Amino acid sequence: MSLITVLFIAVGLGVDAFSVAIGIGAANHKKSWTPVLRLAASFGLFQFLMPIIGWLAGLIVVEMIASFDHWIAFGLLALVGGKMIWEGFEKEHDEEKDDQTRGWPLLVLSIATSIDALAVGFSFSVLKSQILLPAIIIGIVCFLMTVIGMIFGKVLARIFGKKVEIFGGLVLISIGIKIMMDHMA
Q1: CATH number attached to the domain at 3-90+98-184
Q2: What confidence score (pLDDT) does residue 95 get?
Q3: DSSP label at residue 89
Q4: Which residue blocks in 97-162 are alpha helix, DSSP H?
């Protein structure tokens, strides 16, 4: 898979973390670096680990599904992208004012924002693509997007809001379509 494709996937996956970081950044009136780095490190780590876990799971079943693996990759990316688009059109809920960058809330948010990366890792496996470099890129991009989202949370929430999730979903669906076209050519 090309580096450009991996970067687009990374940005698409990072949009959930970015959106959450905007909400947390907008709700967090204390703009010290500690919560920013804590959230970014946790999100980045989970976005790095989940594709590897998905890739390893895919290795187990890859031989059984080799003839239709591109359909699975497309389906997973389309499902995840569609979910993100759907969530982008939902009404925004008020964020809690508690510190979401500590304890259970941080763990739950880290898992929730990286579940999509698990499916992407599985897709990489069925396509017989390497995972370590893409996982590193995905983790770093997520880290950076989280930092940016937290720092500019108030401004970005006012300007973009939920539209950022719609863009991320469209990127993932586009990657799925590209995979289908590559395999059908």
Answers
A1: 1.20.1250
A2: 44
A3: H
A4: 103-126, 132-151, 153-159
